TrEMBL record:
GO terms for cellular component: extracellular space; plasma membrane. This is Carboxylic ester hydrolase. The keyword Hydrolase applies. Belongs to the type-B carboxylesterase/lipase family.
Amino acid sequence: MLAFHLLVCGVLAAAMVHALPEVKVRGTTISGRDISSNVEFFGGIPFAEPPIGALRFRPPVFKVQLNTTTFDAGKYGKACIQLLLWTYGGAFVIGSSSLYDATELVQRSIQRKTPIIYVNFNYRLGPLGFPQGQEADDRRALNLALEDQITALEWVQANIHFFGGDKNKVTIFGQSAGAIMTGVLLLSPILERLARGAILESGSSNGLASFTASRHEGSWQYFVSQVPSCASVATSGNTFSCLQNATTEEITIATLQADSITEFVWTPTLDTGRNSLYPDLASRLYSKGRFSRLPFIAGTNRDEGTGFASQQPLTNEDLKAMLIGLNTSPGGSPGIEATADKVLALYPADPAVGSPYGTGNELFGLPASYKRHASILGDMTFEAPRRMLSQAAAKFGAKSYAYQFTDPQAIPALGVPHTAEVPYVYGQVPPTAGAASQNLSIAVMDYWISFTVSLDPNDGKGVKRPRWPQYKYANQVLLQLEGGNATVIQDDYRKEQIAFLNKNAQTFNR
């Protein structure tokens, strides 16, 4: 279901404190429940019609009416006006809004007297969210998950005032796949009428190689062949009609089977059609200044690649084949072999310079190639794209802030891996992490809330924390987020390697 979860600051009249919260929305109401004395939860609110049957593989259909009980929404105060909307990650194939509980984040906003409304939503995943192949292109059924994201924002624009929110003060934030999706929307002017700021955690629009839908024709055909009721039409070029009648169970099982043998394919797709959300490679659009000027925060974790690196031995030839295979267009990518050779030369087979960084020659019982592979993946997929985005924003006058999250984690072989910052943002760092990490979580929440409220992470409210400088072309700096060691650093680590990746981004279709 395409639906919302909302956490709202409870500013009810005293006589209503013990009643279940209800909000009237366009002649109908939705009922919620109290999370605490100050926070109310509204879950499962549909913002679009269910994308099943004839609506499968179609753009979302805006949900106009809800069917619940009645309630006088005038009892809500106006203190809770800023809104933070989350887009979850999960490699575009897994995830759910219900996995994220922002109670602590909203409570923190109340404690610092800058209350916010938190919203998250579900979007279509896998082949339902990112159909591939020529048929999807011909039917204008590309990037449906991005359409879901836009429709969620449009619902907020139309209805958030019923919850005491201000539609003109929306910040969209996301992590991993959710950050990549948000990054793609930053390439389109449409986002500027739906939000005023963005936060991208470990993801930006050029984090993955991007292609037109025809590049993954074979992957689409294999997926359809794994749907028992549709296997006979897998190569027909006319699969949508059958798939619209397939069961959810069939689709789910087929997606899992397809993912087990195909490359990373269910991702945002280049679309050269009219009103496209993703008309060209992000690196090319950045170079021309063709992106939104919304203020944003963008950052990464120190060891982004460790969770994705192979723990099996890899030769130089294996790594080169991976670089070429994942990044080559159907017609070939000129110069990619020589470029891949140069990448491998810049990332030598020396564990002391691999990821997790700062661990010397320690191999953690893993093959020596693990740290090399992790370094390449982390830089190509996360670090280089973030730096390119930050530099483009600075060059073309968009206000931005950048960070690197470096707080030590529990598993040494992973270092500070992908997703490590998420518990800190949500105020869910386990007590065993220690006081420094607990205090860092409070500071991170304050930075995020401050940006949501003022488009500046330095509002002076909440805990005392280092001032976070704006990323400028003449002063390219990051805030290092580490418990007991939050400080400003230069954005110049692995300068030669990352500069080469960004110089050759178009060779790698990024």
